TrEMBL record:
<keyword id="KW-0663">Pyridoxal phosphate</keyword>
<comment type="function">
    <text>Pyridoxal 5'-phosphate (PLP)-binding protein, which is involved in PLP homeostasis.</text>
</comment>
<dbReference type="Pfam" id="PF01168">
    <property type="entry name" value="Ala_racemase_N"/>
</dbReference>
<dbReference type="InterPro" id="IPR029066">
    <property type="entry name" value="PLP-binding_barrel"/>
</dbReference>
<feature type="domain" description="Alanine racemase N-terminal">
    <location>
        <begin position="13"/>
        <end position="220"/>
    </location>
</feature>
<comment type="similarity">
    <text>Belongs to the pyridoxal phosphate-binding protein YggS/PROSC family.</text>
</comment>
<feature type="modified residue" description="N6-(pyridoxal phosphate)lysine">
    <location>
        <position position="27"/>
    </location>
</feature>
<dbReference type="InterPro" id="IPR001608">
    <property type="entry name" value="Ala_racemase_N"/>
</dbReference>
<dbReference type="GO" id="GO:0030170">
    <property type="term" value="F:pyridoxal phosphate binding"/>
</dbReference>
<dbReference type="InterPro" id="IPR011078">
    <property type="entry name" value="PyrdxlP_homeostasis"/>
</dbReference>
<protein>
    <recommendedName>
        <fullName>Pyridoxal phosphate homeostasis protein</fullName>
    </recommendedName>
</protein>
Length: 223
C-alpha cells in the first residue's frame, strides 16, 4: 500500500472545497502506486521525467490525464506531444514554439502553462513578470497548436510561510492581470501553485490547481 485512502480523500475534499484540481505527483513512484489512486477514482497525475512518463503511460489506463510538471527539454517534446494533457513548465518562447510544432504534427492543440519565476532563489526556471508583459502578445498569434491556458509557479523552498504566501499572492496578481487579455490561444484559466508543504496556503491565495506528491504517496528517496 502506497496510498492511505482516508488521507487522499481528505486532501481531495480540501481541494474541491476551493474549486481546485488535485494533481497527484507520482514521479519516482511505481505504477502500482498510481493504480491505487486510480482505483479510488483519481485521474490527474503529474510526472517530471519524460522517459519515466512514457513507461508509465504505456502500462496504465488511457483515461489518465497526464500533467508534465518537470523541466522539459525541447528535443523531448515529441515523445509526450501525442497524449500529454497539460504541460506546466513552459519557460521559454523557444520551447513554446517546439510544443506548437509537435502539436501540429499530432493534429492537436496542446494546453500549456507558462512558468513564472516567483521565488527569490536564482535556480528556479521561468519567465519574469517583465518578460510576460512584453513578449507574449503578437508572437503567439501564429501558434495555432498551443493554448496558453494558465500560469505555474513554485514558491521558495523555505520554512518562512509568510514569504511563501507573499510569493503566491504575487503570482495571483500577475495571473489576474493577464487573465483579462484573452485571445484564441491565450486564455488564462489555470493557476498551478502549491505542493505538499504549501498547498493550503496556495489554495487560500487563489490557486486552482495543486501538485501534491509526497503527502499522497509518501516521501521520495530521490528526485
Ligand atoms: C515534485 C514536484 C511536486 C510535488 O512535490 P511534493 O513536495 O512531493 O508535493 C510539485 N511540483 C513540482 C514542479 C515538482 O517537481
Amino acid at each position: 500500500m502506497f496510498v492511505n485512502p482516508e488521507n487522499y480523500f481528505s486532501i481531495l475534499k480540501e481541494t474541491q472545497a476551493a474549486n481546485a484540481t488535485l494533481v497527484a505527483v507520482s514521479k519516482t513512484k511505481p505504477v502500482e502506486a498510481i493504480k491505487e489512486l486510480y482505483d479510488l477514482g483519481h485521474r490527474d497525475f503529474g510526472e517530471n521525467y519524460v522517459q519515466e512518463l512514457l513507461n508509465k503511460e504505456a502500462q496504465l489506463p488511457k483515461d489518465i490525464r497526464w500533467h508534465f510538471i518537470g523541466h522539459l527539454q525541447g528535443n523531448k517534446v515529441k515523445y509526450i506531444a501525442p497524449f500529454v494533457r497539460l504541460i506546466h513548465g513552459i519557460d521559454s518562447f523557444k520551447l513554446l514554439k517546439e510544443v506548437n510544432k509537435q502539436g501540429g504534427k499530432n493534429n492537436r492543440v496542446i494546453d500549456v502553462l507558462l512558468q513564472v519565476h516567483i521565488a527569490q532563489e536564482e535556480t528556479k526556471f521561468g519567465f519574469s513578470e517583465e518578460e510576460l508583459n512584453t513578449s507574449f502578445n503578437h508572437e503567439l498569434q501564429e501558434l495555432n497548436n498551443i493554448c496558453v491556458s494558465g500560469l505555474m509557479g513554485m514558491a521558495s523552498f523555505t520554512e518562512d510561510m509568510n514569504k511563501v504566501r507573499n510569493e503566491f499572492k504575487n503570482l495571483k496578481r500577475i495571473f489576474d492581470q493577464h487573465a483579462q487579455l484573452q485571445t484564441p490561444n491565450f486564455k488564462l484559466q489555470t493557476l498551478s501553485m502549491g505542493m505538499s508543504a504549501d498547498y493550503k496556503i496556495a489554495l487560500e491565495e487563489g490557486s486552482n490547481l495543486i501538485r501534491v506528491g509526497s503527502l499522497l504517496f509518501g516521501k521520495r528517496q530521490n528526485g
